Amino acid sequence: MELDEWIRGMEKLFIVVEVPDDKKVNIRMFYLTGEADIWSNTVRDRLLGPEFTWSKFREEIRGKFYPVVVER
Questions:
Q1: DSSP label at 7?
Q2: In whole angstroms, how far apart are CA 70 and each of 3, 7, 29, 62, 67?
């Protein structure tokens, strides 16, 4: 799936560039495109709080772009 590939790519980037956990959600904004970028902009305030981790972001974006019937 394209979303899972994007997530794996981001996680590789975070490792190589040594991105601290508290910066991961902010950095993803630069790499989102198309419908995911539009969605991110509409929920930006909620997605930028200090309690909003990379794990939480993955849950949110999968919830938005994966139908309930899709196996992960």
A1: H
A2: 12, 16, 25, 10, 6
